[in-house]
Amino acid sequence: MSWLTKSWQALARSLEAAHRRLRDRLRPDIRVHMVTERPTQLRPHRLYVTRQADGPAFGFLLCPCGCGETLHLRFFGERRPRWQVRHDARGRASVTPSVWRQAGCRSHFILTSGRVRWC
Ligand SMILES: [Zn+2]
After folding, report:
1. How far is CA 62 from CA 10, 17, 56, 66, in A?
2. CA of 65 to the centre of ligand 1 (A)
3. Quick one: pLDDT at residue 114?
4. CB–CB of 61/96 below 8 Å?
5. Pairing of β 70-74 and β 55-62
6. 51 CA to middle of ligand 1, Å?
7. Strand 46-52, strand 55-62: pairing
8. pLDDT per residue over 52-76, tens digit each?
9. If you measure from the C-alpha of residue 70 to the centroid of ligand 1, how many angstroms do you get, rounded to a whole number?
């Protein structure tokens, strides 16, 4: 591989990384929206949360990678996986532990104060 090709590839990689960082910074925060049932149409940057008597039940979120899949999170019971959801005064969502899709895009991320941090 020529010196020029290697340099070009290194430049392309660093531009891609810079683009990813900028895109993540400009992306709106993910906020909690309480709903009575799962919406038929999900909008990006929203974590829809249904309730049951003693707290949050399920969460629905468009995968933040942009693949278009809906992520289903369960916030109650003993079965795993099970997550905890919180939001701050501005509605920005935090979910623990990390979310890791085992199929499709295999996205793995932590959602903290409405921001996605890729793992
Ligand atoms: Zn995805």
Report:
1. 32, 23, 18, 8
2. 4
3. 97
4. no
5. antiparallel
6. 25
7. antiparallel
8. 998 999 999 999 999 999 999 999 9
9. 8
Q: What dihedral angle (degrees, nearest 10) is formed by the CA atoms of 82, 86, 87, 92? A: -40
Residue whose entry in the numeric block shows the structure tokens 């916030």: 75
Strand partners, 47: 32, 61
Q: Ligand 1 center to residue 108 CA distance, Å?
A: 9
Give 22's pLDDT tier (boundaries 50, 70, 90).
Answer: confident
CA 6 / ligand 1 centre spacing (Å): 31
User: What does 11-48 look like in DSSP terms, one character per residue?
Assistant: HHHHHHHHHHHHHHHHSPPPEEEEESS--SS--TTEEE
Q: Summarize pLDDT for 76-110 with one digit per residue, the tens.
A: 999 999 999 999 999 999 999 999 999 999 999 99
Residue 88 is classified by DSSP as: -
Instruction: Tell how far the Cα of 56 is from the centroid of ligand 1, in angstroms.
Output: 23
Predicted TM-score (pTM) of this structure: 0.79
pLDDT at 25 over 80: no
